[in-house]
């Protein structure tokens, strides 16, 4: 009886910690998406855990496509401080290539993107992917390509930045710095 009680008391912290670990993922990121031009999946919960996250709807044939360079520079500059950038290509504004291989070439080869890129999906309206449905409900739907959504590590604070917001040297970068410097709950 004492051994059973001891075993139960030892196991109790493990049983209690499992739900805490499972619930540390904001609902917004509690999903998997297919990686761009791949059969592999991106586990958004794992990618974003305890990280400041910048979500961007992208397109390969847009006047803002050159922002890939700035987004990559932003990612390189702040990833070791806790920033992750995730791109979501979309043809909702009719400026994405039809073939994902071509989209991948633009991102990975032409612009040297190393941050995670999801497969092409819808980002507006009732058929938007779950991430953009949540972002739109929390702030506003993207009005064009390269809208940016800055999400705090715990997923409670979400800020929207329009397509015209430059990745470096402006309000977006200032907001990223401020979010990275704000301690998250429980730390």
UniProtKB/TrEMBL annotation:
Keywords: Oxidoreductase, Peroxidase, Signal. It comes from the Bacteria. InterPro entries: Glutathione_peroxidase, Thioredoxin-like_sf. The active site is at residue 62. Residues 1-22 form the signal peptide. One of its GO terms (molecular function) is peroxidase activity. Pfam families: GSHPx. Coiled coil: none annotated. GO terms for biological process: cellular response to oxidative stress. Belongs to the glutathione peroxidase family. This is Glutathione peroxidase. The lineage of its organism: Bacteria, Pseudomonadati, Pseudomonadota, Gammaproteobacteria, Oceanospirillales.
